[in-house]
Amino acid sequence: SEARGPVEVRVVTAGGDISSSMVLFEFVDRAEVSGVYPSSGSVEGGTLLEVRGMHFAVTGDVMCRLMGKTSTAEAVSSTMLRCVSPAVEQLGSTVLEVSGNGMEYEGGGAEFEYLEAWKVEGIYPSAGPESGGGTVTVMGAGFGERGVFGCKFGGLDEVIAAQRLSSNKLKCRAPMHEPGNATVAVSGNGVDFQYS
Predict the structure, then answer these.
(1) Peptide bond preceding 129 in cis form (omega within 30 of 0)
(2) What are phi and psi of 59, to 5 degrees?
(3) What is the distance between the alpha carbons of residues 184 and 172, in angstroms, rounded to a whole number?
(4) Which pTM value belongs to this model?
(5) How many CA atoms lie within 13 A of 184 on its CB side?
(6) What is the percentage of the chain residues whose pLDDT exceeds 90?
(7) How far apart are CA 52 and CA 192, in angstroms?
(8) How many CA atoms lie within 13 A of 94 on its CB side?
(9) For 1-55, what is each residue's pLDDT tens digit?
(10) Using an 8 Å Cβ cutoff, are 164 and 139 in contact?
(11) What HEC string does 80-144 produce?
(12) First vs last Cα of the chain: how many Å apart?
């Protein structure tokens, strides 16, 4: 049967002498990643990821790895970690891997997709009725075909689905809002927002 938990490790010489000192080594179950939320983010990194699975280490050098780049993880429990996606140089999907010792990594079925970095450069029109309902065109960059875009207005929590018109243009319907200036924020993954 397979050993679990800590065991004593001692040095034995070729002559059969056993050292009087020892260290502990712990056998643990292999970590398994079953899901990650959100499942996409910008190549600029910085997306807070919630990683689900089993047998995660809750102490030690708990890490996440995406496209060969690592980030320190916070162990919430043996079934949930939180880490921040590292910046990478290429677009695409990658398997998310975790480690309990910073050396050996295990994955599973959870993939994370790196998308082009999105940004807001301007909006038109810059004013609309407080009753909402008007269409706002957002100009920017990084509005790639794989993103799921949404807009937020004036600090409201409501995320409004955006229609992608091109890689540099989105269309959003403005919500009801009190009169006054309001920022417009855009997300390509429903979590990370870039403000106008």
Answers:
(1) no
(2) -135, 170
(3) 10
(4) 0.83
(5) 28
(6) 67
(7) 20
(8) 21
(9) 465 666 777 788 888 888 878 787 767 788 999 999 999 999 999 999 999 999 9
(10) no
(11) EEEEECCCCCCCEEEECEEECECCCCECECCEEEEECCCEEEEEECCCCCCCCCCEEEEEEECCC
(12) 60
